[in-house]
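Structure tokens please, single chain.
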Amino acid sequence: MQYRTYIPTIQHQVDHMLSVPQCHHLVKVLRAPHQATIEILDGKGSVFTSNLHIESKKCAYLKNIVHLKCNEAPHKKITLIVAITKLNALDIMLQKATELGAWQIQPVMTEYTPIKKELFLSEKKQLHWEKILHSSLIQSSNPWLPDLQQPISIMDIAPGDDLLILHPYGPHIQSSDLSNISRVAIGPEGGWSPKELAFFNQNNISTFSFPTPIMRAETCVSANLAILHL
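Here you go.
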């Protein structure tokens, strides 16, 4: 079994004492034995290897840390612009965005956003979403941790040829329309409001849909990121 963890501050040949949550995850959840080989991701493209030294149930070190490689940054750095929707759905979207290699995640407030901005900005929620990103990074072995931005209004998104706005009732997108896309926006449940659609139209921002049945927002994240990476 491959044992893996995320440590942004890891250094070559510098022993690292695991935090209590890191120790619990490796020793209790994954059941990594003493002297097990542990792969370490720093979220910035580098991969390290080390040996686990367990001293007690709550105390363990990583030793013999060696820098294995630094992955090249992806050629297409995709920014996922995602409307803030129900919190459990947002959890799934952040998880799938990390697993599928989104470079940046930009949450946006819309007219149909069902929660207040203050809740999204609360320290408790920020820590919760960071934990989701970290665990998804470990699970997927993605060497690049997405950059989770602070929420803004959808109307503050800059227009451009690299921007794709998905709308369930827009015309079907063609594969030829995707070659220059590096930013993709996925709306809330029910799609974008008439006011937001008028804003897109006024700024010459086209909206498109996939030639599929209407998808939930979290399904659309997975489908769209997979297609853009082809």
